[in-house]
Write a structure and sequence with these properties.
- There is one protein chain.
- It is built from 2 helices and 5 strands.
- By secondary structure, it is α+β, with helices and mostly antiparallel strands.
- Helix content is about 15%, strand content about 30%.
Length: about 70
């Protein structure tokens, strides 16, 4: 993702289009949830289930919660 972001700071509405993580390994390590500042567009192919988006009018960030699904 850092290659996508470049030198710019993350801002509301940014998206990760091609996250590359080993969700099977996360599951083996008993990782159950991932918090992200950006929406993960390829979450389904990574076995990540979108749970909830947290927002607040006075915050410059949105927080996305994803559940790591068993492999």
């Amino acid at each position: 993702f850092s290659a996508q972001a470049g030198d710019e700071a993350l801002k509301r509405g940014d998206k990760i289009t091609d996250l590359r993580i080993n969700s099977g390994l996360l599951d083996k390590m008993n990782c159950r949830y991932i918090f992200s500042l950006c929406e993960i567009e390829n979450s389904k192919e990574l076995n990540l289930f979108f749970e909830k988006k947290f927002t607040h009018d006075r915050s410059m960030y949105e927080i996305f919660l994803y559940k790591v699904m068993p492999a």
